[in-house]
Amino acid sequence: DIEIPVVYMNISHPFAGLIKQGVDAAAKEYGVKAYITGPTDWATDAQVNVIENLIAKKVDAMSIAVLDIPGMTPVIQKALKSGIPVTCFNVDAPESGRLSFTGEDLFKAGAATAETLVKHMGPKGKIMVSCVSLSAVWSLKREEGVMSVLNKYPDIEIVDRVNALGDEQAQYAAMENSLMAHPDINGMISFGGTQFIFARLLENKGVGNLDSDKPIYNTGHDLFEEKLTQVKNGWATAAFGQNPYEQGYQAVKQLVEFMMKDVKPYDIDTGVIEVDKSNVDKFIKDLADGKPVG
Fold first, then answer.
1. Residue 217: left if φ>0, alpha if ψ -120 to 50, beta else—which one?
2. pLDDT tens for residues 182-221?
3. Distance between CA 123 and CA 157 in Å, rounded?
4. Whether the Cβ atoms of residue 273 and residue 243 lie closer than 8 Å to each other
């Protein structure tokens, strides 16, 4: 069988399960051994080690979601030099020589989260920003998009930047410490991986609900069951999907067709989908019906 590992940054995160749906569908459709794999924390070294092992295993092809673009580029180039076709999905390494990229425009996605926060919160307030890795290039690109909007509003003050590294427990503690230090915040923007943790924190403390006297508006990325429930119940204001099913599906499809039919891989922008209270029920129903969301 043709073996195609699809390497995500942290397979313990709920988002990975949405990618897996697309990978599994393409594997079944094309009759190949395709599967999602990767480290279980947000660590460049761990992701590099996974890819090094796949190169040593001489897999037929692979697709990679890049946690650290400078850190991952050399190992992608190593795979290509060893004769393994490589594409990127979710986050790109454009200088690596990869064959194609499937994913969202990170700058536009970041800008969308900020525009929606301002729409709900208004043109003034104190906010925190957060991410599972503030120094990751994908986080920085989303941050650029966020700041392109916030710079228009001088009365919005960023009071804390939370770098929520580690596992969920450590991430929760980092978010909680920030909230305790800044109990008067009006909002939070996640650059990636932290919105559901923050919404969980608000719910546990019973503060900041959209229907309360003092809402703490928050926006972020990715759609999965817990996040959708948080949006429905008012603990998360809005979340933005990037079609991870399509990212996983195309990761396999393009490599299979390249190897079997000599079809050159091509870039795909999977777009940005906003979910808030006005449309969340549709996405919850789709999820219950087994349809891909994200």
1. beta
2. 999 999 999 999 999 999 999 999 999 999 999 999 999 9
3. 10
4. yes
Q: 193, 136 in Cβ contact below 8 A?
A: no
Whole-prediction pTM: 0.87
Query: Is the pLDDT confidence value at 13 over 90?
Result: no
Q: Among 2, 62, 70, which Cα is nearest to 38's? A: 62
89 neighbors 248 (Cβ within 8 angstroms): yes
| DSSP states along 206-222 | T---TTSSS--EEEEE-
**Cα-based distances in Å from 187 to 34, 47, 58, 137, 232:** 40, 32, 48, 24, 18
Contact, 96 vs 79, CB < 8 A?
Answer: no
